[in-house]
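If you are new to this repository, start here. Below is one unmodified record pulled from the training split, so you can see the exact layout before writing a loader.
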Amino acid sequence: MYDVGYNNIYLIENYGYRFENIILNHLKQKYKSVFYLKQNNYEVDFIVEELDLAIQVCYELNEENFEREIN
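And here is the target side for that same chain:
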């Protein structure tokens, strides 16, 4: 488990990174098998094996990241 409190110590202001870690911690508490997938230039933030579910997390969707996040 990753403690997002460490981000505050080091003043990491990447809110997307923090948001992903909050979601990961929640999923890890509820499910045994949580993975991420990177394949053929595509990435899925979380795969929950028990639910056969893929989850893409995005703190802010904008013109620069829209295509990457949706693909």
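Two things worth knowing about this chain: Residues 5-70 form one domain. The chain has one domain: 5-70.
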